Amino acid sequence: MFITFEGIDFCGKSTQVELLKKFFQDQKKEVKLIREPGGTEISEMVRSILLDKKHYHMVMETEIFLFSAARAQLVREKIRPYLNQGIYVISDRFHDSTTAYQGFGRGIDIESVKHINSLAIGETVPDITFFIDITIEEADRRKKLMQNFDPDRIEVSDSSFYERVRAGYLYIADNENRIKVINGMKSIEEIHNDILEEISFLEKKEIR
Predict the structure, then answer these.
(1) Is the dihedral of CA 57, 59, 62, 68 positive or negative?
(2) What confidence tens digit (pLDDT) does each residue in 146-185 have?
(3) pLDDT in tens, 13-36
(4) Which domains does the chain show, CATH number per domain?
(5) CA 65 centroid distance within chain
(6) How are beta strands 88-92 and 179-183 bridged, if at all?
(7) What residues does 88 pair with on adjacent strands?
(8) Measured in whole angstroms, how far is the alpha carbon of residue 169 from the centre of its chain?
(9) Residues 104, 164: contact at Cβ < 8 Å?
C-alpha cells in the first residue's frame, strides 16, 4: 500500500506519519518512510537547492521542475521497488503538494501542473492520501510556539500564499476520491484514530 500525507506547514502530518509507521510495525508489516523532496542521493541534493533561502530569486517554473525531478528519481529508485516487494510505503508529501503549492500557491496553470506531475510519477499514484487540514491562523500559532525556528525558502511565504495552498488542497480533495480530509484541529490521538479507520476501511475493500 502506498500512503501519502499532505497539508500546509505545521499541520502535524509528520507526527502522524511516525504514528502510522509504528502501527504497521506493531502489526509486523514492513514499512518504509519517504520524505519529499528527498529520499535518494540525487533527490536530497535537489532538496538542498529548493529549500535554501539563498535562492530567494528562484522562479516558479524552476521550482516546479526541481520538485518534480526529485520526485521522479524517488519514484523509480525507491517507491516502485518497495511496492513491488510488498512493502508499505508512507510518504510525507507527494505530487499533491506540487498541485497545491506550485499550482494554486504560485499560480502555475493547473493543466500544466497535471502534465508535469504525470510525467514525474507515471502510474505510481497513492492508494490513499490524508490531507490534514488546519486553519492558517492555527498554523501561525503553532509556528510561534516553536523555539529557534529557522524557516526555509518555502516557509517564509506569507499568509495569503498559504490561504491559496489550503484552498488548493480542498479543491483536490473535492475531485479525488483517494484523498481523505482529516480535521487537524483535533488531538494527536483523535487524528491518528481517524486515520486508522480509513486505513482499515481501505484494507477491507482491497480484500474484497
Answers:
(1) positive
(2) 888 888 899 888 999 999 999 999 999 999 999 999 999 9
(3) 999 999 999 999 999 999 999 999
(4) 2-207 (3.40.50.300)
(5) 17
(6) unpaired
(7) 31
(8) 11
(9) yes
DSSP per residue over the chain, as a string? -EEEEE-STTSSHHHHHHHHHHHHHHTT--EEEEESS-SSHHHHHHHHHHH-GGGTT--HHHHHHHHHHHHHHHIIIIIHHHHHTT-EEEEES-HHHIIIIIIIIT---HHHHHHHHHHHHTT---SEEEEEE--HHHHHHHHHHSTT----TTTT--HHHHHHHHHHHHHHHHH-TTEEEEETTS-HHHHHHHHHHHHHHHHHHHH-
Contact 30, 88 (CB under 8 A): yes
Q: Are 169 and 131 in contact (CB under 8 A)?
A: yes
Phi, psi of 125 (to 5 degrees): -100, 140
The answer to whether residues 92 and 5 touch, using CB atoms and an 8 Å cutoff, is yes
User: What cell was used for 18?
Assistant: 511516525
Q: Output the CA angle 41-169-62, nearest 5 degrees.
A: 45
Q: Enumerate long-range contacts of 53-61, CB under 8 Å, 24 or more apart.
A: 53/151, 53/152, 53/153, 53/156, 55/153, 56/153, 58/153, 60/102, 60/106, 60/107, 60/108, 61/108
